[in-house]
Each structure stands twice: as C-alpha cells, then as structure tokens.
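Incident log, structure service

09:12 report received: a user says their structure output differs between two submissions of the same chain.
09:20 pulled the input from the user's history:
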Amino acid sequence: MKFIYADAMDFVDPDFDFANDRTSEGRIVQWDDEYPHEFLDRAPYDGILISRGVVGDVQHQGKYTLPQMMRFRREGARKFIRYAEDKYPGSLLFGDCGAFTYRDQKLPPYTPVDTIQFYAEGGFSHGCSVDHIIFDFDEGSGRSREEMPDATLERYDLTLQLASEFHAESKRLKSFTPMGVIQGWSAPSMAWAATQLVHMGYDYLAVGGLVPLKVPQIHAALAAIREAIPSRVRLHLLGFGKIENLAEFERYGIASFDTTSPLLRAFKDAAKNYFARDPAGELSYYTAIRVPQARENNKLKAKARRGVLNQETALHLETIALDSIRKHVTGKLSIEKTLDNVLAYWKALNWREDHDEASQQRMLLKQRGIYRRTLKDQPWRNCDCRVCREGGVEALLFRSSNRNKRRGMHNLHVFYQHLLAHRLSA
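09:34 re-ran on a clean worker, output below:
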C-alpha cells in the first residue's frame, strides 16, 4: 500500500531562528524553503499528490500565488516542488482536481481536456478524472435513485460522464495512468459507479468522498466496491484521514492512499500533535506545549482590548514559560516549577471570566498532567529525524508555523517508518 502525501505548499525555512522566532534574513518563500522530502534525511512518503484546485489558475485562485502558479505550469510539478525522479527513484506524482475546493459550485470549473493537459504538462505519473463531490452517505443499502435529490443525482451522473470523456481523451497522450474517481451516496451507488468505470477501461480507481465518513461507512463502501470489480483493478483512497485504522482496510486490496493527516495533526489536533512509536511498534502520541506568541495571539489581543489582561504581562509570562522549558531540558529547572510557569501563561490565555472557577481548575489540572507527560518523557530524545536532532524541545512547542510544520514533518517521518515496518512484517 503506497503512501501518497497530499501537498498544500507545506515547507519550512531550514534556517529558522528558534531563539528569536525569526525566519532567515532575505528568505524568499518557497524558493529558499524546504519540502518534507528535502528537509528530512529521506522522503517520508512514496509519492506526492498535488490538487489542481490548490495550484489554481488565472480564473480560479488556489493556494499558489499567481507567479508560483505560472512557474508551476512552466516548469512542471516535479521541478517546482524539487522532487526529481533521478533523486527520488520510484517516486510517484498523483494529481486530482481538488473537488472540495469547488464543492459549492453547480459544475466543476475544469473539463477533461484541460485537466489532461494539466497532468501532461505537469509530468504527473497518475491523474484522477474530473469529479464532483457528494456529501450525502446513507447507512445500509441506502436510498435508491428515485429517492435521491436531483442535485445529488446530477453530481453522480456528471462525475461518471466526465470520467468517460477523461478516459477517452487520455488514450491520445498515454503520458500518465488515468484514474477514475468514484463518488456516491451509499455503498451500492459507489459499487455501481465502480463497475461503470471499469467498463470504460479504467484499471485504477480512486474512491472519493471519504473525508466525512466514519470507519464503518468506509468499510461498507469499500466492501461493496471490491465485490463489484475484478481483483486486478487497483484502488486508491482519496483524502484518507483515518490513519489509525489503516490496517483494517488492507483486506480490500488497497494499492495506495493519500493523506495530509500526520502533518495537519501537528497543529490542528487538540492532543495528538507529536507522533512516536511505542515499544510494541504501535503509533503513540504526545501533546505539544502551547506557548503562543503574545503579540500575535488573537485570544490574548482580545483580552488586552477588553482590559482583562495587560499585554506587557502576557509578554512577561510568555518569556518565563519559554525560558523555563529550555532550562528544564538542560537540567536547570525542576519539572514542577517548569509546569507552574508554563501553566501560568496557559491560564492567562484560557481563563474565562464567565466560567466557574471549579471547572477551570479541573481543566488546569488536566492540562498539567498532559504537559507533565511530554516534559517527563522528552520523546524528541528518542527520535533521530532532522527535526528532533536540530530542534530538540522546540519541536514540541506549539507556536509558530515553522515550528508546527517541522513537527508535522517529524510526524510524516514516524508514520512512514511505521508503514515500512508494517510492510516488512507482512
């Protein structure tokens, strides 16, 4: 099962100054920054997925700036993200349209013809057909076509129509492997869509619409799809975020999946910010210690405007918290005194005047236990990735983008090593 990382312009400044929270002097975004495969000692994935919706174009703004988008189209994907085949042999480059980016539009903004051109010019190894995301999903056998809203049926039929046109057009170029995207509102509707895609000539299908689904729903969809299509047809999971349950889905003959989950959890998860592997070889997690920049944190600025917290006091608490953590890891301050100082800042950030004192004290006590585990175990000392070697405890500070994305890159490293170990033991 190949791990394809879904990139969304995730890179770090390799010369970021942790002590002063500053990027390197004269830094040019993206040009001077490094992607995970550049920053780490080895690429932490088997391939990269780039969505057309993320790149954008003149008429549809993506995450790329206009100059970046134009350079991407001119140079091709591999050169733009510095992921050359000769440097990363056997690496894959997947493309899709990024259906979530145009989910509110009646029709996709792209056609099969211009999407094929995008894949061909970009040098992609695999390209997904144009699809339109369906958010409804019924449990069990689901509703029949006659029971479905017209808007859902229009998206369903349009996705299949566009896939048919995409496959026919892709035969002319043969520069990449075409992948037919499955959308549906139930397991049976997805299975029927899969059979239609196979009849069109696809031998690699991408299962879409998985992001909002629960694990039992994904099982139902994949079981129905696999039963409906030949075993020779490969399956890819688009936007698969249930990484803890990945092993459960091997039974369906999954060839590949894409996700950003390990990186995103570094700064979007409430608790699972730092990945580790326990003695049994299973994934475990630590919570990053939140020490936000006082001058930039919206909560603190709002409190300052209301007169609840003096900004100079916040800056003082921030400095003490950071100094305490750094002193503790060098053996110069006890863990309990460090926690006192860290939580004094945490309290200034999170205490609510309109909440009762007892419940907030319970929250404070719980947070103390969570942070004590992180500081006591010091998990960065057991990791040999570049993030932990160079940053040490800085990798466990929930603070600026450069720190947070470094922690995300560490997570990619640990997750990929976990997958490689699982492959070897299988």
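09:41 both user submissions now match this output. Likely a transient worker issue. Closing.
09:42 reviewer note: The first helix runs from residue 36 to 39. Residues 75 and 153 are 39 Å apart (CA to CA).
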